[in-house]
Amino acid sequence: MVHPTAESHDAIIIGAGFAGLYAVHALRNQQAKDVIAFDAAGDVGGTWYWNRYPGARVDIESVHYSYSFDEDLQQEWHWTERFPAQPEILRYLEHVADRFDLRRSIRFNTRITSLTWDDDESLWTATTDAGEVHVARWVISGAGTLSVPKKPEFGGIENFAGETYTTGNWPHHEVDFAGKRVGIIGVGSSGIQAVSEIAKQAGHLTVLQRTPNYATPIGNYATDPAEEAAEKADYAALREASRNHFLGVPYSDVQPSAVAATLDERREVFDDRWNRGGFRLFIDAYGDILFDHEANDTVAQYIRDRIHERVDDPATAELLAPRGYPYGTKRPPLETDYYEAFNRPDVDLVDVKSNPIEAVTEGGVRLADGTELAFDVLVLATGFDACTGPLLAMNVTGRRGRTLKEHWADGPQTYLGLMAAGFPNLFMITGPQSPSVLYNMPLAIEDHVDFSVAAISHVEEQGRAVIEPTPEAEQEWVAHTNELAQATLLPDSPTSWYMGKNVPGKPQRVLVYLGGAPTYRARCDEVVAAGYEGFAISDRHSDRAFA
Ligand code: NAP
Predict the structure, then answer these.
(1) What distance in Å separates the CA atoms of residue 444 and residue 442, rounded to the nearest whole number?
(2) Where does the pLDDT of residue 543 fall: very low under 50, low under 70, confident under 90, or very high at 90 and above?
(3) Phi and psi, residue 469, nearest 5°
(4) For a pLDDT cut of 90, what percent of the chain falls above it?
(5) pLDDT of 51 above 80
(6) Is 256's pLDDT higher than 80?
(7) How far is residue 437's CA from residue 441's CA, in Å, rounded to a whole number?
(8) In angstroms, rounded to a whole number, what is the distance separating the alpha carbons of residues 457 and 39?
(9) Cα 479 from chain centroid?
(10) How confident is the model over 75-119, as pLDDT tens digits?
(11) Does residue 153 sit in helix, strand or coil?
């Protein structure tokens, strides 16, 4: 039964980042739906609201990592850098919110605490931490993929007498590192970006590294007016090329095989991609790097050699050089002067793989062998409960009282990475088992929101009320995504969050679709063309769909 004080809407939207903002625009401004959106943050921005740590910067060129849905917006907005820093991306999202008048539909500082499907009414009920109850036929979740920081395995953080910061939940005030002994735990994309900046500011910086990473230069530069004009002259073609690329960027220089190339040819290609920056070495060098160990070894060795060239002390260089897992099986970080930071006399590297962190203490960090490291400031760059974490955190209950937690007990189960069987009318933007983080996010988000809005229209045009994947379609999709992952080297990484391996106890199943954005988009088009193949569309009281 619907809660007596509930506010009723056509759709509930979760999040006010790239996904939530576009969903509000698409449903409210373009489809005239009554929507309400929620975000735990105090304003728009999503990931770019929370991740304010020093050095936070996008690592897909913003000319590509931006909305494509409005020609005037993409023509008029000017990025000052090729890979802008967090404040500029946040300003862009604030501008989008103003330009399309989105804020009036968003409740900020409000977290969804439960989301429950009513089988009789075919409605979702959302409760918030403000004690409000909202009811809607449709839910679009833009809760994000990397929005729930992982709880570190070690204890004692509450005992630390100094200042503690988490990269994924950074305060709004300026953090003063001057003259302080700073310890940073974690060398993923966040830690690596932060190290380069904090090293310049801290009295002394100690980097606690467990698994060294294959970081490569981002290659940032101030926007070149001629390049910007050329790109804007035919933005539509640029977007089309992006959408037809595995990663959603219009790169076009990938060569078929590193193994088939000679040593000299490889060196030339690797040097070129390294110097041009971005994800070119990862995705625009050789097509077999993610699939073939021998091919992967060539680029892994190239990166190790480059690290040794950049780091003065050979022992430190060797500790920073990744070994024992293939390049690209953990998300490759992009850096600016990261390796050079270790040439500073006031920066130390500590190996916490051979000597793990045992606990945070009042004065700093204690390692397994009893070593005590003293800090004034501790920075946690220890990552996220990726992809499934944000959805599970909302306490979702679907048909017949079955929770999403139960449904995903062995890992995520979705159809197209967008919906789950038994959870009708709930669209998970860039959900688990979709290309999401392996596709340029704003474009992945637009594709998913467009698909969801079209599906809602399709259902309503038929005078129906409910859409959900069939269990069979879901099972096939899960099997397909697992099969794709097995054909790559991804399962070989011991700690990758792509596989759910970074969080102790998390089921280990691939969290991303590895067939590439173009194949995925073609599959979505086929599904629609075949009359929403794999989905059951029904009336209210739609247990009939499975009767
Ligand atoms: P991450 O890649 O998961 O890295 C977490 C780091 O913390 C790893 O080095 C990990 O070591 C370490 N760690 C975790 N628990 C530890 C423990 N108990 N003891 C010692 N070390 C521990 O997380 P992230 O750096 O926040 O990045 C997550 C994702 O966010 C990225 O992959 C990327 O997709 C996205 N991101 C993007 C950007 C960008 O676009 N510019 C920037 C930042 C982040 P192990 O590897 O040994 O587990």
Answers:
(1) 6
(2) very low
(3) -70, 150
(4) 96
(5) yes
(6) yes
(7) 6
(8) 25
(9) 23
(10) 999 999 999 999 999 999 999 999 999 999 999 999 999 999 999
(11) coil
Q: What's the distance, CA 175 to chain centroid?
A: 25
Ligand 1: centre distance to CA 380 (Å): 10
For the domain made up of 7-148+386-538, give the CATH fold.
FAD/NAD(P)-binding domain (3.50.50)
Residue extent(s) of CATH 3.50.50.60 domains in the chain:
7-148+386-538
128 neighbors 134 (Cβ within 8 angstroms): yes
Closest CA to 303 of 221, 219, 218, 213: 213
Read off the pLDDT of each residue in 449-458 and give the average, rounded to a whole number: 98
The answer, yes or no, to whether residue 547 has pLDDT greater than 70, is no
Please tell me the residue having the least CA distance from ligand 1 atom 37.
189
Predicted confidence (pLDDT) at residue 487 exceeds the cutoff of 50: yes
Q: Is 47 in the pocket of ligand 1 (CB under 6 A)?
A: no
Phi and psi torsions of 282, nearest 5°: -70, -45
Average pLDDT over residues 336-345: 98
> In the structure, what pLDDT confidence band is assigned to residue 2 with cuts at 50, 70 and 90?
low
Q: Which residue's C-alpha comes closest to atom 33 of ligand 1?
A: 189
Ligand 1 centroid from CA 58, angstroms: 15
Pocket lining: 352 vs ligand 1, CB cutoff 6 Å:
yes
Residue 331 is classified by DSSP as P
Residue 343: HSE in the Cβ half-sphere, 13 Å Cα cutoff = 10
Cβ neighbours, 10 Å, residue 263 = 8
Whether residue 7 contacts residue 133, with contact meaning beta carbons closer than 8 Å, is answered with yes
Return the pLDDT at 1: 61
Q: State the CB neighbour count (10 A cutoff) for residue 42.
A: 10
How far does the chain reach from its first CA to its final CA, in angstroms?
A: 22
Structure tokens at 457: 């229209």
User: Which token pair is 149?
Assistant: 């920081």
Mutate to test the pocket of ligand 1, among 378, 382, 493, 498 (most ligand atoms within 8 A of CB): 382
Number of H helices, E strands in the chain: 17, 20
Residue-wise pLDDT tens digits, 459-479:
999 999 999 999 999 999 999
509 CA → ligand 1 middle, Å:
18
147 CB near ligand 1 (under 6 Å): no
Q: Summarize pLDDT for 162-214 with one digit per residue, the tens.
A: 999 999 999 999 999 999 999 999 999 999 999 999 999 999 999 999 999 99
The residue written with tokens 């102790």 in the block is: 504
* pLDDT interval class at 493 (50, 70, 90): confident
Q: Is 382 in the pocket of ligand 1 (CB under 6 A)?
A: yes
Cα–Cα distances in angstroms (integers) from residue 31 to residues 27, 450, 540, in the given order: 5, 11, 22
Q: What are phi and psi of 489, to 5 degrees?
A: -90, 0
Residue 542 has pLDDT above 50, yes or no: no
Return the H-helix or E-strand segment holding 529.
helix 517-529
Burial tier of 102 (Cβ tally within 10 Å: 0-12, 13-18, 19+): buried
The pTM for the full model equals 0.97
Query: What is the phi/psi pair of residue 492, to 5°?
Result: -80, -15
Residues listed for the chain: 547
